[in-house]
């Protein structure tokens, strides 16, 4: 019998039944007497349910808890594993998972830190290269070797030079970009007489910086696309100050006499 | 499994059973909370309201769950499975009682009188009615009685009962119909109870 029919039988008397309800109950009862007997049966079932609706004793549960401990305690994992991976805790609350997550984050972010390290190493290498080449003098510039010379600037010794400067006075200014990775120097030479500018590019075996007759020395180095990812690494400019007294072509107003 | 915590009270019986079989104590506690009361009551009804026996049977049943969780077939409903286990335990007890005492279903003829004597002092009519009802219920064949109790006392659906008793739904409906008719016929002398 459907639960709805049981509810109808339990909540209504026979005279209150509608035609539809009588129709539904026709299989079970057709007369008032049968309806009342049906009501008694369900009432007896309710009474039986209520009279037996008791909870088991607490001792039962305790005994079962002990049995559970005895049964699954044997299968218990090692203490360390239980500590780092306690199954009773939520997944993200287990220490092993947390440590693994931190490790994963560190692994993912490592390439970013590595990029910074490479950048700074590159810069340090360039500075070192520049510093150890500062032992060249003007005499080197005036030798027969094909040399690119910058007035007041960095003399660059090259083995395959396309331009030879005969006189230092011809040079007004020079800007070189030295690619230390490819041993190439490129830049522009500015002539005073005649006024002209020449682009220069040369292979470089050795380069030097000589603070001999310069008010200042500057070396621009640009590492063009040397990074594998094409990251721009900036321009390094090194400037050396030279005392005026050591500069032959600068008028010293303090000591000059007319 | 939920990432930030799983409430065992939200899990299905079948999942709890699986968790329990891996040693999850909270899963066992949840299953016990859900079924200890209904099963205890079921044992009480099926075992002549013998509270001690019901306690023992309940403990035996949960001990089986703990020790032999692999007996549970995950493809089945846990509820119907556990009721079928309980029902089989009752059947075994009936057989034991028959052998021991030589009475039908092992029923002790004096058990119910002592249990219900308290009610005699109260509403006599209701007590007599209830006594007659339960006596009639005991007189029923076991397969009719268990079908009636599971349906109208424990509230299982026809489908659940058919799975529990391993019989088709038509058979279960027929058994329940027969049980209701038999009880109704046996109780027709108790008219005064009707109008309460």
Key descriptive features of the protein:
heterodimer, A: 258 residues, alpha+beta, five-stranded antiparallel β-sheet, two-stranded antiparallel ribbon, 7 strands, 38% helix, B: 196 residues, mainly alpha, Rna Polymerase Sigma Factor, Chain: A, 9 helices
What's the gist of this structure?
The complex is a heterodimer of chains A (258) and B (196). Chain A has seven helices and seven strands. Chain A is of the alpha+beta class and 258 residues long.
CATH topology of the domain at 9-106 in chain B: Rna Polymerase Sigma Factor, Chain: A
Do you know the CATH architecture of the domain at 9-106 in chain B?
A: Orthogonal Bundle
Please state roughly what percent of the residues of chain B sit in beta strands, choosing from under 5%, 5-15%, 15-25%, 25-35%, 35-45% or over 45%: under 5%
Question: What percent of the residues of chain A sit in helical stretches (DSSP H or I)?
Answer: 25-40%
Helix content, binned percent of chain B:
55-70%
The separation of the N and C termini of chain B measures 51 Å
Work out the strand percent of chain A.
Answer: 15-25%
Number of discrete helical segments of chain A: 7
How would you characterize the overall build of this protein?
The complex is a heterodimer of chains A (258) and B (196). Chain A is 38% helix and 19% strand. Chain A is an alpha+beta fold and 258 residues long. Among the domains of chain A are: 3-45, no CATH class; 133-246, no CATH class. In chain A, the strands form two sheets. A five-stranded antiparallel beta sheet of chain A has the order 1-2-5-4-3, with no helix packed on it. Chain A has a two-stranded antiparallel ribbon with strand order 6-7. In chain A, strand 3 (171-179) and strand 4 (184-191) form a beta hairpin. In chain B, 69% of the residues lie in helices and 0% in strands. Chain B has helices at residues 13-21, 25-46, 51-67, 78-101, 111-120, 124-139, 142-153, 158-165, 169-186. Chain B is elongated, with a radius of gyration of 19 Å. Chains A and B meet through helix 3 and helix 4 of A and helix 2, helix 3, helix 6, helix 7 and helix 9 of B.
């Amino acid at each position: 019998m459907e639960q709805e029919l049981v509810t109808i039988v339990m909540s209504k008397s026979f005279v209150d039944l509608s035609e539809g309800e009588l129709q539904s109950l026709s299989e079970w009862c057709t007369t008032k007497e049968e309806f009342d007997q049906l009501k008694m049966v369900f009432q007896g079932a309710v009474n039986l349910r209520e009279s037996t609706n008791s909870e088991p004793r607490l001792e039962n549960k305790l005994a079962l808890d002990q049995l559970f401990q005895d049964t699954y305690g044997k299968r218990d994992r090692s203490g360390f594993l239980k500590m780092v991976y306690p199954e009773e805790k939520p997944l993200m609350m287990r220490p092993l998972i947390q440590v693994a997550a931190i490790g994963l984050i560190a692994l993912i972010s490592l390439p970013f830190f590595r990029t910074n390290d490479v950048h700074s190493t590159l810069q340090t290498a360039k500075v070192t290269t520049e510093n150890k080449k500062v032992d060249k003098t003007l005499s080197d510039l005036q030798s027969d070797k094909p040399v690119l010379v910058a007035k007041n600037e960095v003399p660059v010794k090259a083995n395959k030079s396309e331009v030879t400067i005969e006189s230092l006075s011809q040079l007004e200014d020079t800007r070189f970009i030295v690619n230390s990775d490819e041993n190439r120097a490129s830049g522009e030479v500015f002539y005073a007489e005649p006024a002209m500018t020449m682009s220069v590019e040369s292979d470089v075996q050795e380069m030097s910086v000589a603070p001999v007759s310069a008010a200042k020395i500057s070396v621009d180095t640009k590492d063009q696309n040397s990074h594998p990812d094409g990251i721009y690494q900036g321009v390094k400019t090194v400037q050396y100050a030279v005392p005026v007294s050591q500069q032959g072509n600068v008028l010293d107003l303090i000591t000059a006499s007319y | 499994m939920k990432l930030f915590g799983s409430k065992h009270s939200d899990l299905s019986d079948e999942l709890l059973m699986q968790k329990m079989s891996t040693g999850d104590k909270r899963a066992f506690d949840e299953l016990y909370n859900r079924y200890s009361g209904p099963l205890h009551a079921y044992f009480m009804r099926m075992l002549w309201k013998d509270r001690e026996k019901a306690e023992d049977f309940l403990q035996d049943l949960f001990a089986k769950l703990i020790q032999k969780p692999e007996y549970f077939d995950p493809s089945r409903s846990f509820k119907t499975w556990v009721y079928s286990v309980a029902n089989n335990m009752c059947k075994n007890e009936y057989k034991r009682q028959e052998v021991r005492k030589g009475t039908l279903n092992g029923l002790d003829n004096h058990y119910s009188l002592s249990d219900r004597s308290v009610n005699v002092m109260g509403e006599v009519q209701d007590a007599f009615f209830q006594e007659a009802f339960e006596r009639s219920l005991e007189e029923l064949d076991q397969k009719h009685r268990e079908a009636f109790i599971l349906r109208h006392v424990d509230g299982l659906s026809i489908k659940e009962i058919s799975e529990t008793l391993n019989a088709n739904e038509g058979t279960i409906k027929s058994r329940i119909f027969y049980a209701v008719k038999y009880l109704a016929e046996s109780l027709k002398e108790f008219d005064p109870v009707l109008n309460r």
